[in-house]
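Record minuted for completeness.

…
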Amino acid sequence: MIQFPYGISDFQRIRSQGMLYLDRTAHIPAIEAAGDQLVFLRPRRFGKSLLLSTLANYYDRHTADEFPALFGDLAIGKNPTAEHNQYLILRWDFSKVSAQGDLAAITGNLFRHLNECIKGFAQKYQAILQFPITVYPEDALASFDSLTNSVKNSGHTLYLLIDEYDNFANEILTSDPHDRVRYHDLLEGEGVLKTLFKVIKASASESKISRVFITGVSPVVLSDMTSGYNVATSIYLDEDFNALCGIPEVELQGLVQQIMHGHGLAETHVTEVMETLRRFYNGYRFCKDLTQATVYNPTLCFYALRHYQKKAQLPDQMLDGNLAMDAGRIRYIANLPVGAAVIDQILDETRTTPLRQLETRFGVEQLQRVQHDPSYMLSLLYFFGVLTIADVDGMGRLVLAIPNLVIRGLYVEQLKEQTLPRFEDQQTAQHLAEDFYQTADLQPVVEFVENKYFAVFSNRDYRWSNELTVKTAFMTLLFNDLYYIMDSEAVIQRRYSDLLMIIRPNMRRFPLLKDIVLEFKYVSLADAKLTAEQVRNQSRETLAALPVVQAAMQAALTQLRDYRQALETKYQQPERLHCLAVVALGFERVLWEAC
């Protein structure tokens, strides 16, 4: 049975206890060659802390005797570099530093963390350090200077590893987009964080530090530290390190096959499970080289596979709670002055979201641009892991897209919260959607959309066609990744359906659920030659008889008949499949027919 290291980032513990370790040590020579001071950015829960733990154990003089046990069967153990076990290791983890309080409180939190790490370092290496390390309770920068002097004067070299370098600064930035004062005080002028990195830079230039490896989520803080720390090499968009964190599909499939074998399940189950994992967890690319395969989020994969190994089925809830806080990143953007329009653009799958380049300067001086410039918002969403590089267009621009269904669900939930701010309306919407999944009767949903949604959606700053606006209203109301694999603009026989709701394989055991395809058409009031008031005052039967409405309805029904044949062949359950044509007449009324 595989022991998944879910939530564990201690390399030594993983290896000594026989847990699963996906070998990334073949990248170590390239990391060494990339530079002495490196910055590597990845979204949350992508394995950055485990990477640092791996490097710490590989380079630490303290673990030299354990090298064969820890690395012997790994790629780097078979061909180690000359630098293995040559350094004293100092690790800082800024995710442990609270961002609460004013500048003095944050500085105190940071200094306490640095001093505790320095104390641990002194205890660990006391046998080989010839000079004592003095810890200054009120001045961790002086403590750090004492440490580097001790290491150098004792004839050793230091490797500094910093995890989540931007964590508490990002928390300040995203918790209140208007709170520029605390952020400015941290990073500008002689701000404590900028001063800390100036000390690191000076120590490296004086050969007190030999190597530095920094991980984080975004380049926000780096932008404001440039003058204080302008010597680091950024490797986060380097194609050589695209898969340094994350799981390639071939590796994930091997794990699924191993679990299937343990349960005595047929190979057909591998295909089924991989298809679900692919739709929910795959899609991340961290470079412009499109020949590099996309990778899966490792935390989500371990969450799902651990559940499958125990229960012989994937979890009902595919979003692990560890990543639910990413919704806050989307909310941060959505609440900016033009953020709602950016979210709308992202959800429009018929249009690309191109960028000339990822913005990397998010400093204090650019905060206003972050709040008003879509390119800054899109870049920040990329670094947060809720957009990814999907393509490069004919002009060499990056095309960003939502990576998978788990992340799409976060966007849809944010849109629903903005559209239906009242809890009572959200509850009503949920009950209506759940009834629809079982009956395929769209009428109650239609009436709710007419009464609650259209007033909001018609006033939003959409840059879409009206048909897409209507589709988005229904998708927001009906989206449910607990029961369905939901696709907007899904390809069926080389044609695109507007909204495809296919029951997840592990949910097909519930007979009341329906497979559903919806095709949307839009008829403007001008084309209908009616005013909004006239449309509202006429019966559905009268509106359905309008020639322009009939033409739109027949076009949708014709498309659905083609889709039905293909889907019945694929899923072999025609009795569960319901195809619905939906025609919106302005933003006033909705008509529908079953195919």
Summary: The mean pLDDT is 88. Residues 432 and 571 are 26 Å apart (CA to CA).
